[in-house]
Automatic annotation (TrEMBL):
InterPro entries: F-box-like_dom_sf, F-box_dom, LRR_dom_sf
UniProt-recorded name of the protein: F-box domain-containing protein
Region (Disordered): 74-95
Biased composition (Basic and acidic residues): 75-95
Gene3D superfamilies assigned to the protein according to its UniProt record, in alphabetical order: Ribonuclease Inhibitor
Sequence ranges assigned to domain F-box in this UniProt record: 5-32
Length: 355
């Protein structure tokens, strides 16, 4: 019976999780190996729940919650003289600054996530985490408990559900702040004894990972075949030129003697809503000769096994430029353009049920 849950739509799974106390979720995960080999964890918590986390550190009082648009109801105002100490204490405990709220939400989300990873990490094969950001506690859990067996990792800090929280809407348009937490996930610097190293699929959405950190993470996972980056700070020329073999890491002597680009194994590369991927200006791309019509994206040539390449919502890339480069040089089976081109006379698709 429990195995059937994995066949349910993600929205239904999330609804079920939202009503499960944290300890019940852990107990359920222990019942079947198939349940926790492919965990999808939503560590969301509403801002008005933060009061439960601030005064007392509880070990058994966590609930998996989904951010929903708050329904405001009229509240009867009490006289100022009634319960003065309670009102003062509530104001002291309840944060009002959006930055403080976001920081505390991130801490609460990662506390839940790290506890699950610390408990089940050594057996997880597929793991997805949807939250506001990652912190040192979660990164340490991933780097120590998911070093070798984990094959699929998705860290989604941009999701349709969390857009309705108490955070400024502009927050979701840009990557999360850069952080040293990624060093623990990667296993670099003083953390060389840890780090995830067996990934085949990596998905990062609204991640504040730097180009150098992203380079180290991909290098640490040589069997990576699927890399999907959306609103990712690391998707910049420094990383992309290395990925395509145009630049070598001076600290890695082995890399200099290889005939293959570091990204040669990649079959899927998605760069979505990333606006700093060009290595040079392409203002006059119509005048580029055919043999150099991909100027600014030459690094793509080194990805010889690529089957799918996406530039969705990368608005500084003209679709005509990408179409010409792929037809003339890259010849990749599937290339997603930044936006759909509509020529004059193109029919508009209409839902048949509306006709």
């Amino acid at each position: 019976m429990s195995d059937r849950i994995s066949f349910l739509p993600l929205e239904i799974v999330l609804q079920i999780l939202s009503y499960l106390p944290f300890e019940s979720l852990l107990a359920f995960g222990e019942t079947s190996c198939s349940n926790y080999q492919s965990h999808i964890l939503s560590g969301w918590i509403k801002a008005d729940q933060l009061i439960d986390f601030i005064p007392i550190e509880r070990e058994t009082d966590y609930t998996i919650s989904i951010i929903r648009r708050p329904k405001f109801k009229p509240v009867k105002q009490e006289p100022a003289s009634k319960h003065p100490m309670r009102t003062k204490d509530a104001k002291r405990r309840s944060p009002t600054d959006p930055f403080v709220i976001q920081k505390q939400i991130v801490r609460a989300q990662n506390k839940i996530f790290s506890r699950i990873v610390n408990r089940y990490g050594t057996s997880l094969v597929k793991l997805e985490f949807m939250a506001y950001d990652i912190d040192i506690e979660s990164a340490m859990a991933l780097g120590t408990r998911c070093q070798y067996l984990l094959r699929h990792l998705a860290l989604r800090f941009e999701h349709q559900h969390i857009r309705e929280g108490h955070i400024k809407p502009s927050t979701w348009r840009f990557p999360a702040p850069c952080s040293i937490a990624w060093n623990l996930l990667i296993g670099i610097g003083q953390y060389k004894h840890i780090g995830v190293s067996g990934l085949q699929t990596l998905i990062l959405e609204r991640a504040g990972i730097t180009p150098w950190q992203l380079t180290m993470l991909v290098k640490k996972n040589p069997n990576l075949t699927v890399l999907k980056l959306k609103t990712c700070h690391g998707a910049q020329p420094e990383f992309l030129k290395w990925l395509g073999g145009m630049e070598q890491d001076s600290d890695d002597p082995v890399e200099g003697v290889s005939d293959f680009a570091p990204g040669d194994r990649l079959e899927v590369l998605w760069l979505e809503n990333c606006h700093q991927i060009l290595t040079q200006s392409i203002d006059n791309h119509e005048d580029f000769p055919d043999e150099a019509c991909d100027r600014g994206l030459e690094w793509v040539r080194g990805l010889r096994n690529l089957q799918s390449l996406s530039f969705n919502k990368c608005m500084n890339l003209p679709s005509e430029y990408l179409e010409r480069a792929n037809k003339t040089i890259w010849k990749i089976p599937e290339v997603s353009l930044p936006y759909i081109r509509y020529e004059e006379g193109t029919p508009i698709e209409v839902d048949p049920t509306l006709m």
